[in-house]
Each structure stands twice: as structure tokens, then as C-alpha cells.
Amino acid sequence: MRFDLQIIASWITPGAKVLDLGCGEGDLLSFLKEQKQVYGTGIECQESKVAQCIAAGLPVLQGDINSEVEDYPDKAFDYVILSQTLQQVFDPEKLIHAMLRIGGQAIVSFPNFSHWRNRLQLLTTGYAPKNRQLPFEWYNTPNIRVITLNDFRRFARLAGFTILKEVAINTDHHNEDGNIINHLAGLRATYGIFMIGKGH
Amino acid sequence: MISNIPTTESDLNKTNNSVGLVEKKFFTFGESPDELVLDNGSRLGPITLAYETLGSLNADRSNAILVLHALSGDSHMAGYYALSDPKPGWWDSMIGPGKGINTDQYFVVCSNILGSCMGSIGPSSINPATGRPFGLNFPVVTIGDMVKTQKALIDHLKIPKLLAVIGGSIGGMQVLEWTVRYPEMMAAAVPLATTAKHSALAIAFNEVARQAIMADPNWNHGDYYDGDKPNLGLAVARMIGHITYLSDEAMRRKFGRQLQDKSDFSFNFDADFQVESYLRYQGKKFVERFDANSFLYITKAADYFDIGRQHGEGSLAKAFAKAQARFMIVSFTSDWLYPTYQSKSLVKALKKNNLEVSFCEIEAEWGHDAFLLPSDRLTLLIKGFLNRQTHEGRI
Fold this sequence. Notes:
The complex is a heterodimer.
Chain A: H1 3-11, E1 17-21, H2 27-36, E2 39-44, H3 47-55, E3 60-62, H4 65-68, E4 77-83, H5 92-102, E5 103-111, H6 116-125, H7 149-159, E6 161-171, E7 178-181, H8 185-188, E8 191-198
Parallel strand pairs in A: 1-2, 1-4, 2-3, 4-5
Antiparallel strand pairs in A: 5-8, 6-7, 6-8
Chain B: H1 9-16, E1 25-29, E2 36-37, E3 43-44, E4 47-54, E5 64-68, E6 95-96, E7 101-102, E8 107-111, H2 143-156, E9 162-168, H3 170-181, E10 186-192, H4 200-214, H5 231-245, H6 248-254, H7 274-287, H8 292-304, H9 307-311, H10 316-319, E11 326-332, H11 340-352, E12 357-362, H12 376-392
């Protein structure tokens, strides 16, 4: 499982109710179900991935996360997770508000744009950064938002969310191994993971 | 029984690759004074249902699955009545040993719906009061009435709770009705290619089909069982149905503008195009096995179906407040009879009630018919979903 998902999983209390937005092939949901007796469900837009999840015994529904989050009652989940998708969301503030309405806590992870390698690439080559975390050209990237750890902290403050936990990580090129970064995270971390709650 | 000894390779296939030989069974209930009270207020009894069971019930009676058929289906869901049968039951691709609905694992039940003509009581059955076929004296029944009779059968089979109810199209409507009428009776529900209420488009097609039957002089206000049957009207009704089961894309791929056995137009009104010939063939084949009055009654039941109106005072979300099952809803991209938006409104209503719902829209070119065609994707979805109910079910 991806290293950021391992960190996220470690934050989830056993037996919790979890919604995974953009759950992909269900790696996190399967792990939480087996290791933490979590009741998890997911939303995914790709038919083949949805089918793979359901065939593996996970309750997942096909749809667009931005609209699907609207139908759940308040506090339907303990945790609502958005892993490595925030940078693709058109209206992050609206989505995170919805996540905090239907869940007690929201967990988001995203690639840290201010990693030193990105800064160096831009500075030395003059081209938009392209690497293992951001493997696209500007004209075909699904990542429509450029976010740094600092950006997210400021966004949380302005939008009225509380950051309850945060971890910066540096991962290997498969993203499966990694380590937690405590110093100079804005420069050294490839991903940021935040747990947020409502209000200041 | 000579015909049931495998003699050819195709006979062997029938015994190997399918559930094998099956039999049509019957169950009668509702003798006076315990007739069934129908949704229209009238009483009907005694009621006979034709049904089929596959696999075996386990010791704690917790592995039963109820399969619900569509408009022209019957209780014969899989296998063969005799080895000489050219075709197996209508969902043989899904039900059998090791298949999506695995008969080595589950006890699978399917009954012919109330109002049909495949062994269960319907307008072509003999009215005990007159000794003649009911015809239009048969009461107008609803999807709810069909489900009430199925509940009587499940009680008769001493099944305390079903593992799942599964069905497509009108069978899917019955699935939905089951989940709100008898919410404690199943762990899981699988409505396929269906809707919470019949749309104006669907009602319109049904009405044209019914008009075709009723315009046939042989129909005679439903009283035709002693003479010629309204075969022309029923054939046209079926042709209309087949248009709704396909799609623009399916017809384009299957027929295009290809001519049937000719290189140029005939300049008369024979079937020039392959699509015309296909529809005529489907119509002709259908009248050999189906009763025109049953077609009227079942399509009317489908048109009346509106689960929000019946169970939720007009609100779909309210209707499902009673439901307890875990749902898996499946729609097909090219289904224009019950398009995906109708399945999505079901998903929405279930989510609002905090019910567990899985949903998948399968990319398929074959229109509404897709739910009945062999599909690896649908098979894996159903297999995985059922497997989960077995291991984590609340039975």
C-alpha cells in the first residue's frame, strides 16, 4: 500500500465508519477492513475500478466525488478521506466543507509542490516541474491545483478549518516506502497529509 | 426419460456446464376464506405459483436467494427441463455451478409472477367461479401483489430470511418492492437495469403495445381463449418492446441499413431491411409462448409502479426509510428504457437513509437487453457482492 495511505490508516480508530473519496482499487478500504475492522465505503469514477472493488467485497459506488458527497446525512461517517486527489478538485473549499458535514473528521493528502526538486527544476530549467509525484506535462496534467504545505495551512485558516494532525512524508519512487519529515518539511517532503476538523 | 440420457456432445455440455436437469414445481395457497387481498382491494384465491429451485438449502436455512424475472420471463431460470430442450432457462449464463449465482453455494428460488401465463395464475387461468378462463375478469394486479405471493412461497419453503433478492427490469422493481414491504426478510438486494417509477417514455411504449393488442379484432375484450388469438396485435406489441430493449447504437451495429436476403429494395411492403425482419421474427416467436392478456396485465403493473408514491407519500427517500438491506445497483450505459439517471436517483435515496449502496454503471452497447446477456463484469460484480453477504451478512 502507498506510504501516505499507511500513515492515514494509522490515524483511523478501529471499528470506525470511513468514506474514501476516489478510492481507486480499494487498497486503503481493504486494509482498514482487514486490519482495523473498519466499516468502509468508497466513491470512484472509473467503472473498472468500481467493479474491482465490488468484486473484492467492498461497498463502492461509481460517481463524481463532488456531487456524491452531497447526498449523505450529517455525520454519516467518522472519517472522510481524500487521498492524493485535492490537487484535482475544482472547488476544494466546497468539497472539504461537505466532507466535514458528513464526517467527524476529514483527512486529505496531496503532493507538496514546494519540494526542493520542484523549486530547483523551475529555477534552473525554466520549465514547470515534472517528476515522479507530478509526472505530467502542463497540457495533460489532471492536477489543476498547485498546493504546498504552507498553502494548505493558510487555506485551512482562511476557510475556517482546524488542522488536527499533520505529517509530511518523503517517499521512494514506488511511493510504498518512505519516512516522516520533521525538519524543513516544506523543502524535503514529497507529500503532506492533514487531518482536519470543523472550525478554529 | 430416454431423452434425458446424454447421447451427444451438446447433451454432455448441458449436464457439465449448467445446473443440469430441473423441474417446474407448483405451490397453491389462498384457498377460501384466506384469499390474498390485492392492492386494488379485491380478493384472489386460490393462487397457484409455478417455481423452480436450484442448489440446496443449508442447515440453518441462510443461503437462499430469490431471483425475480422480467416481463416475459418465467420460473425456469437455468438448466434444462429435458436434455432435448434446445435452450436452457433464461439466466443460465448467470446461475449454475461456479457461476455468478453459484448453485453449489446457494439455494436459488425463482417463481413465475402473478398475472403471467407460464404456470402461475393469470388471465389465461381457469376462473373457479365460472369454469372458463378469467380473461378481463382477472383483477388488475401490481408489483406489490406479485411480491406478496412470492413472500407466501418463501414462507412455504420455510426460509426465515433471504440472503439476497436479485432481478432486472420488472424483476428489479420487485426487488425494490421486497426491500420496503418486507425489509427484515433479506440481507441484500440487487436491482439491475431498473427504476423506482415508470417514466412517461416507458408508459408510452407500453400503452402503444397494449393498443396494438386491443386493436386486434381477435382480442375480443380479452375473451379469445376458445377461438383465434390476437396474435397479430401481440406480435406488434412484442416488436415495440424489442425496440425499447435495444438502443440506437445496438441497432446500428446489429442491423444498420442492411437488406434482408436481397440486394435492392422490393418496392413493396415486405420486410426489406434486416431490422424489419428481426422484429417480425421476434413478434412471431413470442406469440407461440405468451398470452396477450398477460402482456396487458404485466405492463400495467409496471406502469403503476412508483415506490415513492406507494411507500413514501411521494418521496423516494422516505419510501426507503424502512429498508434495511445492503444494495448493489447496476445500470447499463445504453439502456434508454431505464437510463442510468433513474438508478442514480435510487442511489441518492438510499444514501440519504444511510443505507449501504454499491453502484456500477456498466459500459454496454446492447441497451436494456444488456442485463440478460452474458457479461463477465456483471458476473464478477454479483459473485463478489454475494460472497460478501455470505461472510459478513447479518443473517
